[in-house]
User: Fold this.
Amino acid sequence: MTPITNPAIREAAAAMQAALKTGSEKEINQAFELFNESVVEAVKEEARDADIICKAAAVADYRPKHVADEKIKKADGTLFMDLEKKQE
Assistant:
């Protein structure tokens, strides 16, 4: 695996790890947004000197609006999940 060399991405990844350990939906969402912003800025910075840029499509365009604190167990009926659009 290639080490993360961009300091902003490294810090954002550390914040994401810490947020995941807390299990706090608010902290996880904030860390996720920080990580996304850091990656976007790092790509823009690296692109300035690049002759060619190869990108991949997003894994998903939406994410869950609320994160469960624990596993959601099977139940009768229909399960609904609210989604929110991810930043481009």
User: Anything to note?
Assistant: The radius of gyration is 16 Å. The chain has a mean pLDDT of 83. Residues 63 and 83 are 5 Å apart (CA to CA). Residues 25-47 form the longest helix (23 residues).
